[in-house]
Amino acid sequence: MAVLVIAEHHHGGLSDATHKVVTAASKFGGDVDILVAGENAGAVAPEAAKVSGVRKVLKAEGETLRKQTAEAMEALVVPLMANYDAVFIAASTTGKNFAPRIAAKLDVMQLSEIVEVVDQSTFVRPIYAGNAIMTVKSADAKKVITVRGTAFPAAGNDGSASIEDVAAPSGPFKSEFVSEEMVKSDRPELTGAKRVVSGGRALGSSEKFQEFIIPLADKLGAAVGASRAAVDAGYAPNDYQVGQTGKIVAPELYIAIGISGAIQHLAGMKDSKIIVAINKDEEAPIFQVADYGLVADLFVAVPELTAAL
Amino acid sequence: MKVLVPVKRVIDYNVKVRVKPDKSGVDLANVKMSMNPFDEISVEEAVRMKEAGTATEVVVVSIGPQQAQETLRTALAMGADRGILIKTDVAVEPLAVAKLLAKVVAEESPELVLLGKQAIDDDSNQTGQMLAALLDWPQGTFAYKLEKDGDKLTVTREVDGGLQTVSLALPAIVTVDLRLNEPRYASLPNIMKAKKKEIVEKSPEDYGVDVSPRLTIVQVTEPPVRQGGEKVEDVATLVAKLKTAGAV
Q1: Coil, helix or strand for A277?
Q2: Could you say which residues from 56 to 75 on chain B have a Cβ atom under 8 Å away from some Cβ of chain A?
Q3: How far is A198 from chain B (nearest CA, A)?
Q4: Which contacts qualify for A44-47: CB closer than 8 Å, 24 or more apart?
Q5: Residue-wise DSSP of A9-26
Q6: Quick check: A238 and A230 in contact, CB under 8 A?
Q7: How far is A162 from chain B (nearest CA, A)?
Q8: What does the sequence similarity comment in the record state about its family (chain B) (predicted)?
């Protein structure tokens, strides 16, 4: 019995998501191997070898694996699956992109964004924007699983796995990476942050978003999030969106400012440990999930809060 | 080019879902159903491509019960040309949907299949990618912007951390994200016109695809309910509470 975890890495560093996926994979049982695929996999592999409980690291380095595009990952992972019973992948936009492609090639149904491993064929995952929790049993011989990172603690760093080379697939493929435009931020990454400050439509403009949300986030060392309404109105970049169709977060502290609390937004943050809501509408649904609710004008309350911390 | 747009009938996104007391699933009796919001975006994009002269024909397809025909009519009223209903009362999983769609693609030979990035009921986010794998076509998931450039398609994708642009050789699969466009409302005259458009009815058997599920639902439960919170008087009280809770 062996399980493959596909590492997620950025800028030559292993992302925290990988440690969480390893925890989920180790609950499945059997030997856990990590596949590090990328243009610079050589730099990341030693880091992956240190993750606790890992048997070996497979390193696939090559230009075709740049950005882990779906076709290249399919070509790399499908043959490797002859040796594995399951593959665990972080439910990030990268993982969600290539995982179903691998599942279809293996002729198996994928289990998306699992939050619990019950046994080797039974898994728990949220459906309907987190408004229902489904336990499913898979009859497939091999399991392709994406993991919701916030549901699992990160594995430690006391491992010493061996590193093995695997050949990168040769291209060309029918799709090509052209460019990317990343939001520059010194703040903690939204999905891994311990604290998140989110702004909604009530901010009214991107200037006000900057003026009221950012100083509070800075004071708390928090990541910045936004509701879909705020993103659609252009107050905040797309990447800040928390919710069913954006990021799923579960920080220790989530402060929702000027956010009404639509089902789709709650889907992305209701597993936060402590939720604070600041909203002037006392009927806003956000107050039904907030541990501490303050009915107040955010333009008065937020600067006051920032100053008091 | 011909564009194929798969659409799914799902519980309306504004409905607060209720889990059945016997834990067998979600209660869908007498609940408002609509077109999956992401699919509205893909229909809209296909219709815009037709209006711009990029697309020649827009074919919509839905897999589901008889009522899925209403979903197809909505798409036709938005401007799609004709529909295909693959009728089944089984809840078809993404892998089986992808296999059926692959057969439709073989029959229809579209150059582009435009899907929603996920359905808001099962939240799987798989069908488009699976279809791309089965056809060995390139995929552009989570599309934020879409441009045809000769025999290539340039797709800007919403990814964690920002935007990524890829170039796909046609034929290709694209799944759309929320911000690709603002779907139109169907006007009354267009709803009337849509009634005259053709919808062909098929069954999974016609395509020789086995739609029996690979996953068995053990149970569906309510998510844990959060403890009812408290309202605080002012900022000072809030800060004091957060300090006591060790949150700040």
Answers
A1: strand
A2: none
A3: 16
A4: A44/A7, A44/A9, A44/A12, A44/A13, A44/A14, A45/A163, A46/A163, A47/A13, A47/A14
A5: EETTEE-HHHHHHHHHHH
A6: no
A7: 30
A8: Belongs to the ETF beta-subunit/FixA family.
- Please state, rounded to an integer, the average pLDDT across all residues of chain A: 95
Query: Considering chain B, what is the average pLDDT of its residues?
Result: 96
B141 vs A89: CA distance, rounded Å? 17
Looking at this predicted complex, what is its ipTM? 0.94
Output the CA–CA distances (angstroms, integers) from residue B216 to A105, A111, A121, A137, B139, in the order listed: 21, 12, 10, 5, 29
Residue whose token pair is 């929702």: A256
- What would the pLDDT profile of A184-200 be if each residue is shown by its tens digit? 778 888 988 999 999 99
Chain Cα centroid distance, residue A155: 16
Q: Is residue A245 pLDDT above 90, yes or no?
A: no
Q: Using the beta-carbon criterion (under 8 Å), do B215 and A245 form an inter-chain contact?
A: no
How many Cα atoms are found within 13 Å in the side-chain-facing hemisphere of B149? 11
Q: At the fourth CATH level, which superfamily is domain A190-308? A: TPP-binding domain (3.40.50.1220)
Q: What is the pLDDT of residues B131-163, one digit of tens each?
A: 999 999 999 999 999 999 999 999 999 998 899
Domain coordinates of chain A in residue numbers? 2-165, 190-308
pLDDT at res. B140: 98
Q: What is the dihedral of CA A36, A40, A44, A48, to 10 degrees?
A: 10
Binding residues of A for FAD: 201, 227-228, 241-245, 258-265, 279
B198 touches chain A (CB under 8 A): no
| Helical pair B94-108 and B127-135, crossing angle rounded to 10 deg | 50
The full set of domain ranges for chain B reads: 2-221
Whole-angstrom distance, CA of residue A88 vs CA of residue A100? 12
Measure the CA–CA gap between A229 and B87, rounded to whole angstroms. 36
CATH match for A2-165 among 3.40.50.620, 3.40.50.10490, 3.30.1330.10, 3.30.9.100: 3.40.50.620
Phi, psi of A217 (to 5 degrees): -60, -40
pLDDT in tens, A288-298: 999 999 999 99
Q: Which residues of A157-179 are buried (b: 16+ CB within 10 A; e: fewer)?
A: eebebebeebebbeeebbbbeee
- Residue B248: pLDDT over 90: no
- What is the gyration radius of the CA atoms in chain A, in angstroms? 21
pLDDT of A185 reads 77
What letter would DSSP give residue A65?
A: G
- B164 to A67: CB separation less than 8 angstroms, yes or no: yes
Other CB atoms within a 10 A radius of the CB of residue B224 amount to 9
Q: Encode pLDDT of A104-137 as tens digits.
A: 999 999 999 999 999 999 999 999 989 999 999 9
User: Selecting from 3.30.9.10, 2.40.50.100, 3.10.20.340, 3.40.50.620, what CATH number does the domain B2-221 have?
Assistant: 3.40.50.620
The residue written with tokens 């150059």 in the block is: B111
